[in-house]
Amino acid sequence: MAYDYDLFVIGAGSGGVRASRIAAGHGARVGICEDYRVGGTCVIRGCVPKKLLVYGSKFAHEFEDAAAYGWSGLEPVHSWATLRDNVQKEVDRLNGVYLKLLDGAGVKLHMGRGRLMDRHTIAIGEQTVTAGKILIATGGHPVVPEIPGKQFAITSNEAFHLPDPLPKRITIVGAGYIAVEFAGIFNGLGSEVDLVLRRDFVLRGFDEECRLAVHEALKESGIRLRTETQIARIEATDGKAPFTIVTTAGGSFQTDVVMYATGRAPNTSGLGLEKVGVQLDKAGAIAVDEWSRSTAPNIWAVGDVTDRINLTPVAIMEGHCFADTEFGNKPRKPDHRDVPSAVFCQPELANVGLTEEEAALRLGEIRVYTARFKPMKYTLSGRNQRTFMKLIVEEATDRVVGVHMVGDDAAELIQGLAVAVKAGATKALFDATVGIHPAAGEEFVTMRTPRIEAAPTRRAAE
């Protein structure tokens, strides 16, 4: 049977765009559909615009610290409208870049929501196309729990478009990376921020000492941390702010905005997956094997819709591997080991490899090296911000199996160290490397004495 396309991709986010471009480069006839804008969560309503907001919020601290370096007369006034609108202009520009990338690769873009009619037929609006192979790359979306007053809450999607002036009081519900990043953004831009979390510390799943360091830094910055708190309902008069948040314990407080960042769900609803034998896991994600193949033999899935490691570079890797394997005669599986990641809280958290807790369970005997210090930048200004660094070493092999950092520019430093971890570098190689002085990064190659005393403990709420 002759199909319209060799490959059709549903979803033009980072993973789908990469897969379609690479497949087209291998000579395949490729089509792709998208129902909103090209670029996906990361470019349109995620990591890119959010990182720009992080940059904008940090200037408040820079202005404060400048006085100690001889700068005077600084009385800045911030315009949320200017920052918000400039960020959206950049999003518009990037959307245009992605459109050109697809066009330049010879990929045909169909605007509209795609759904499967059978294993080889896709409907986009009133149009239908056929394809030999289909890739699902529809990503995920934020979810808000079913509580009374749910309609008054926003998610990270709407946070980029808040009206001017920025609301005075903002409550963020959640303890993951999206929650703590937006808490730092709005705090830096001058709003009073409440962070509501069900457990006792933020960033569950990260290294325990790093979690503690971030938690204390959030508190030090003036963010009100409402730990071990759950929201029962949101009340409003005439459906408008201010809102009253009522907790399950019976307490209450007021706010001008309630933003939920308590999790995301895969975009699998309405795709017609049940018609074609594509199975979902318990979380509603598409179940795939190590080659990203679904339970339907001609259908694959990559990125957040598979709920493996929900990071943009991982989706790109998965999409590239799929295209090389199926259309480039270069079979390769995506490697999900030692994937570096970062949380752009203030200060940043970044890591690669195993946490101390994971390493102790998997490897047995380990050595742990840590360093805590005040960055040189703050020795004059007196800002009470500290950097924390950590190396985890497997005793039997001397291999560095985990690198963690909380501090300024953590992501930039960990990216380079991720190469060393991926290559299997030993602690002896770290020790033999000459440091750059004075720079925070030199601490990673000058840690000589393993920690003997127990790590700081916390009451386990999990």
Model description:
By secondary structure, the chain is of the alpha/beta class. It has helices spanning 14-25, 40-45, 47-66, 80-105, 156-159, 177-188, 208-220, 312-327, 356-363, 377-381, 410-422, 427-432; strands at 5-10, 30-34, 108-111, 114-118, 121-124, 127-136, 140-142, 169-173, 192-196, 224-226, 231-237, 240-247, 252-255, 257-260, 264-266, 299-301, 341-343, 349-353, 366-373, 387-394, 400-406. It contains 12 helices and 21 strands. Strand 5 and strand 6 form a beta hairpin. Helix 1 packs parallel to helix 4 (80-105), helix 3 runs antiparallel to helix 4 (80-105) and helix 3 packs across helix 6 (177-188). The longest helix has 26 residues, at 80-105. The relative contact order is 0.13.
Any descriptors?
462 residues, alpha/beta, FAD/NAD(P)-binding domain, 3 domains, 5-stranded antiparallel sheet, 24% strand
Tell how many strands the DSSP assignment holds: 21
| CATH second-level architecture of the largest domain | 3-Layer(bba) Sandwich
Summarize the amount of helix as a percent range. Answer: 25-40%
* Corresponding CATH superfamily of the largest domain: FAD/NAD(P)-binding domain
% residues in beta strands: 15-25%
Uncertain runs are: none
Rounded to an integer, what's the Rg over CA atoms?
24 Å
Largest sheet: 7 strands, mixed
Give the terminus-to-terminus CA distance.
54 Å
